[in-house]
Specification:
The complex is a heterodimer of chains A (98) and B (544). Chain A is α+β, with helices and mostly antiparallel strands. Chain A contains three helices and five strands; from the N terminus they run βββαββαα. In chain B, helix 7 crosses helix 8 and helix 11 runs antiparallel to helix 12. Classes of the chains: A alpha+beta (98), B alpha+beta (544). Chains A and B meet through helix 2 of A and strand 5 and helix 13 of B. The structure holds protoporphyrin IX containing FE (HEM) and iron/sulfur cluster.
């Protein structure tokens, strides 16, 4: 599947396109198919997000998994600071990245 | 320390208000990201992997305790409780919100700090010897010259849009502690045969994808021509540096392609021309700046005795302190590299503690080192044990300077959007494997430096051992390099062979240290043994 990521304009937070809006949770990503560029143009135009781009991902039993490690780290947070990731209480979260 | 005059303060304050307005216009949609990006970068605000990142300048790495305390407070108030000290003696915050940035810059301005010259194709924040003004081996304090260059280069209209970023380092001792020859311009303050102070210029060094050691371009520039000569160096670069290809745009490429001699000829020609239209600030300006660097009122006649009965303290004194120019004082380096820690990171509380120790025990001064540590430059030996105790209780008492535990590492793929691989986890594994006091005593000085991509922010080209993260079909992979150095004996490290996985690279380093220990003669460091016996024995042990 193809999903969209970007950064929230005000906070800089990493966000993912859900089909109707932006979420911090990569698992809420929707498949944008061929519409990535159009959604980016519209959303950046509306000044909601910036630096957005299309990412290859895979739908797994556990949720949406971006194909490249860079976006998986984006989705979770720094692997060296589990306390600052989106899943501070999950010791296995780092394995999902690697 | 330098104190802002009304012009300095006004410039910085004006800049904050200007940026406040730019941020307002961005948030209201008046400015697009394309329009805003160069404006935010000129104020130190990057976009990184997870969020905005703010890089705050620490001119020539010198801070007072009020400034340091504020760096800690900012980490708490606007970030997530910590900051990252960088190889260019600055600090970065990883989780900054755009809407907070004008307030942060306003708070910084109140203590004479800013984020100008921390990004973009301008002359960047100038770096220097972290022991300046304290080192027993310096001929003069290099910082007044660094400050003069800072004033000349800040907002210099001709050099705001250079072909590429431009980094200057200034030192004043034989022992280079600032990687001077790996800068676009390296300046070494020297004394000539007549006893006069002047500047030796090196140009065209750098790391990045094409590392180069800067050649000497002028042996002696008199003090009353310092700025004029720097201007000539920059002018030739600004005129002929390549703007068509950003990978070939640094001055190192120009000096390399023209050849050192031709670059020098052109600089001298430009210099002669500039001398006819005086642009040099009056020497009185240098004197005014120098008056800020007369140094603290050291007590005279203090004893050099240290009570070394506590074995942990003895170890730390042996590793982390350096001779001071005044008897009874010592330079103490605080390691930001606890075993298994994140190199260069410090929590808000740790930053404030160091600020307090700087205020109470180091004449209100602190330094950031290019090895991502903090220096208390002027500690009375009589106070050293108290200082160390306080540091140790806060997790800052690690005794590992210049050993395998004292790793330089860039943020890598954990934070950086340009990275190919993570750097920090590799540093953590190495420091866990080799960080014990026994291992350090056995292996001795070994400078290891890690970058997460070819941009070389982690100085891997200059590591006795360097590690470079690469992307191998979507997987993190690490190349190993041996033989770099950034001191007076600057050399560039060479790749030893095919890359490794994260665990593989740690094992390879273990084998390399075994080869070193088996071949070491006398007091040789790893680097000396490597230089003597060459790469083959190491390759054989690692790949064999
Ligand atoms: C996280 C954001 C960062 C970005 C986007 C970034 C980007 C870059 C790039 C593109 C270069 C190569 C420039 C060239 O060769 O023309 C570079 C070089 C360099 N950076 Fe960074 N960097 C970052 C963080 C850091 C950090 C954290 C440090 C210190 C730990 C640092 C210190 C340096 C140094 C020392 C060099 C090489 C010296 C030189 O040749 O200029 N950078 N950086
Ligand atoms: S070396 Fe590469 S990965 Fe490391 S901070 Fe610099 S740009 Fe990022």
């Amino acid at each position: 599947m193809k999903i969209l990521t970007g950064n929230d304009l005000k906070t800089g937070a990493v966000v993912w396109w859900t089909g109707v809006g932006w979420s911090l949770d990569v698992n809420e990503s929707s498949d944008v198919g061929d519409h990535g560029a159009a959604i980016i143009a519209r959303e950046e135009g509306a000044q909601n997000v910036f630096a957005s781009y299309v990412v290859d991902a895979e739908k797994t039993a556990d949720g949406v998994r971006p194909a490249h490690i860079k976006e998986r780290i984006r989705a979770l947070g720094p692997t060296v600071r589990p306390d600052l990731t989106l899943k501070p209480a999950d010791p296995d979260a780092i394995n999902w990245v690697i | 320390m330098y104190k802002y005059d009304e012009y300095d303060q006004q410039m910085v304050d004006t800049r904050v208000e200007e940026f406040r307005d730019q941020v307002r216009r961005r948030l209201s949609g008046e400015l697009t990201e394309d329009q805003f990006k160069p404006l935010r970068l000129q104020n130190g605000l990057y976009l990184q992997l997870h969020a905005y990142m703010l890089r705050v300048a620490v001119p020539y790495g010198t801070l007072n305790s009020t400034q340091m305390k504020l760096l800690g407070d900012i980490a708490d108030k606007y970030d997530r409780g910590y900051g990252h000290f960088t190889t260019r003696q600055n600090i970065q915050y990883n989780w900054i919100k755009l809407e907070d940035t004008p307030d942060i810059l306003a708070e910084l301005a109140k203590v004479e700090m800013h984020a100008i010259q921390t990004s973009g194709n301008c002359i960047r924040n100038i770096s220097s010897d972290q022991f300046a003004g304290a080192a027993a081996d310096e001929i003069i304090d290099p910082r007044p010259y660094a400050e003069l260059l800072r004033q000349w280069s800040s907002f210099h209209p001709e050099f705001l849009v250079l072909p590429r970023k431009f980094k200057i380092a200034v030192i004043a001792s034989e022992k280079d502690r600032a990687a001077m020859r790996l800068h676009d311009i390296g300046i070494k303050m020297v004394r000539n045969d007549a006893g006069e102070i002047g500047a030796q210029f090196y140009a065209g060094g750098g790391m990045g994808r094409t590392p180069m050691i800067a050649p000497l371009i002028r042996d002696f520039v008199p003090l009353n021509q310092l700025i004029t000569f720097a201007e000539a160096c920059l002018r030739v670069y600004n005129r002929y540096g390549r703007r068509d290809n950003k990978y070939k745009a640094r001055i190192k490429i120009l000096v390399h392609e023209l050849g050192r001699d031709e670059y020098v000829r052109q600089v001298e020609e430009e210099f002669a021309h500039l001398l006819t239209q005086p642009i040099e600030p009056p020497l009185a300006e240098l004197e005014r700046i120098k008056a800020h660097f007369t140094g603290p009122d050291f007590e005279q006649g203090l004893s050099d005795e240290l009570d070394l009965r506590d074995p942990d303290f003895r170890l730390w004194v042996g590793r982390n302190t350096t001779a001071h120019k005044v008897p009874g004082y010592v330079i103490a380096t605080v390691s930001l590299k606890p075993v298994g820690g994140i190199p260069g990171d410090a929590s808000a509380d740790q930053i404030r503690l160091m600020a307090q120790l700087g205020r109470d025990y180091s004449f209100d001064e602190l330094r950031v080192t290019h090895a991502q540590n903090i220096v208390l430059p002027h500690v009375r030996k009589a106070d050293l044990y108290t200082v160390w105790k306080a540091l140790d209780e806060a997790g800052l008492g690690t005794a590992n300077l210049d050993t395998l535990g004292d790793i330089i590492a860039c943020p890598g793929l954990d934070y950086c959007s340009l990275a190919n691989a993570r750097s920090i986890p590799v540093a953590q594994k190495i420091s866990e494997r080799f960080g014990s006091a026994e291992k350090q005593a056995e292996i001795g000085e070994l400078k290891l430096k890690i970058s997460g991509c070819i941009n070389a922010c982690g100085h891997h080209h200059a590591g006795h051992i360097g590690i470079l993260g690469v992307d191998k079909k979507g997987l993190e992979n690490y190349q190993l390099l041996f033989g770099g150095s950034e001191g007076a004996d600057t050399s560039l490290a060479k790749i030893i062979g095919p890359g490794f996985t994260e665990d593989g690279v740690v094992d390879a380093i273990e084998k390399a240290t075994q080869v070193y220990l088996a071949n070491k003669q006398g007091e040789e460091r790893f680097l000396d043994t490597y230089r003597r016996i060459g790469m083959d024995p190491f390759k054989e042990a690692i790949y064999g």
